[in-house]
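If you are new to this repository, start here. Below is one unmodified record pulled from the training split, so you can see the exact layout before writing a loader.
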Amino acid sequence: MSEDLYADNPEDLNIGIVLQYHINWEGKIDSDTLIKKARNNGFRGVSVRNATKEQITSLQKACEKYSIKFCQSRPALRLYDADDITKIIIARFEKRNAYFEVDLTKEGHLTSEDSDLLLHLRNWLDSFGHAFYEARPEKNITSNPHAYIFKNAIAPYQIYIFIHQPLPETITLVGMPEIKRAMWIDSRTEIDFNQNKDQVTLELKRNDEDKKFNIYGIRFEAHRPEDDLGPTKY
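And here is the target side for that same chain:
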């Protein structure tokens, strides 16, 4: 999929992931509960498909109330399994938001299966969400084996990589600036690394007690010119 897919109608990447409700029936909906469900599971945007005007208006008002973006409907993915995390990383790398669609029952509820899958996504975001929302694709750095590489949109001296299970024993990144330290994003455990010019190699060891995910993230902190400045004297 091309990163220019939505070039004519770019999205606000601060949204990240959007929960799209498929209603397809008439009647009153509990919009407050639906918007809080999206917010509490880490979504920053909500959209709706096959809804009545009254249902759309109700959801829009609830989005304003709970400070969530009401988004236009778009082709959306279904929640399937743990690999949904891979899909949001790919979307991030392609400069677009990831849309996930869930059906509402006529009682206005999610199925238990969808609720469980949302919880899995929430658990991952609890550990990696801060980096995910700050991440913007960095394509001047490459790696072997494959990993998704990003820079922090606010602090570009921070570099993130997301790697799918099973983790390789080592990874080498090429095109890196001078690195001061590397750590697992979720546990904040520092990782030993070797740097030779623009190549950084590190061993990917996890502690047995660390949480298990299908995608892990690493944060690098690069050397900054201001790090060389001495204390300011007045």
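Two things worth knowing about this chain: The chain is about 25% helix and 30% strand. Helices lie at 31-40, 53-65, 84-93, 112-134.
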